[in-house]
Every structure is written in structure tokens, then in C-alpha cells.
Amino acid sequence: MGAGKLRVRAGRGVTAVLVAALAAACDHAASASPPAAGQTPGPATPTVTPSAVPVLGPMTYGTFPATKDGESALTLCEQWAGLRGQYVAHVQAGHTAYQLEQWFSSAVWQAAFSANTPLRVDARYGEISVAFLVATSGDAASILNARMLDRACAAAD
Fold first, then answer.
1. Is the pTM of this model over 0.90?
2. Which domain holds residue 52?
3. Which of 59, 70, 109, 153 is the most buried (most CB within 10 A)?
4. Count of domains in the chain?
């Protein structure tokens, strides 16, 4: 199989992941119920202060509600804040998609992937979930997609 065909197939795999994530988020949105009147949760409190990373610059968090999914979204963004410097180094080093997938499968990413699990079905965090899935795909890992995840965390959605 030629390299061009391999790239097309890998691209379709990323697209399939995105379509599945968005479809699941839409299904959940239709069945989600809003909090009871007068019971709006307060904001979740970040425990990690993001630092600036060369190439990406500073990172900020949006305001996440103190709900189970809000806290999972914040956890994912905090995990990302701690890994984004290494991410830039891996991407700029020219690692292959396979090498990046191996790294994304390592223990350092486990907490971020665990935090993303409930987000894949919560429409409120669709942008964070999709940006995370794209940025952590060996075929799609890039500085541009890292910035997309930074923006999603700053928007808290």
C-alpha cells in the first residue's frame, strides 16, 4: 500500500473518531436535564496553574461548574497544562505517528484520557473532547491542534 493511501485511511480514522464523538454528544444533549431551579453549581477550583510554553504561549482555564463533568473537563485541561510542553517537544522532534501513539498510550496521559471519558457524551464539553481526541491522535498531533485544545480549555466548553 502506498504512503498516500495510508495517509488517506489514517485521516478517515480521525474523521470517524470526530464524527462518533459529536454524535454521542448530541445524543446526550437531548436527554440531559438541567439542574433544579435555584441549584446552579458554583465554579470548580483549579488545582494546577498553567505555565507558558514556547510556541504555544500562556494557557488559561475557563470557568467550569463544580459538577461531575465540569470537574472532569477541568481535570483534562489541568492534565493538558502539565503535558503541553512535552507535547510541543515531541511534535517538533518529528516523531512518527506510531511514536506519538506510543507516547499517548503511556502512563503520563492516563489521567487525561480518563477525564475525557465522560466528556465524550456531554455536549457541554464537546469542543474540549474533540480537541483532545484530535490533538492526541498520532496522525493529527500538531501545534495547530494543541492551540485548538488550549482555546477549548479557555472557553470551558
1. no
2. 3-31+43-155
3. 153
4. 1
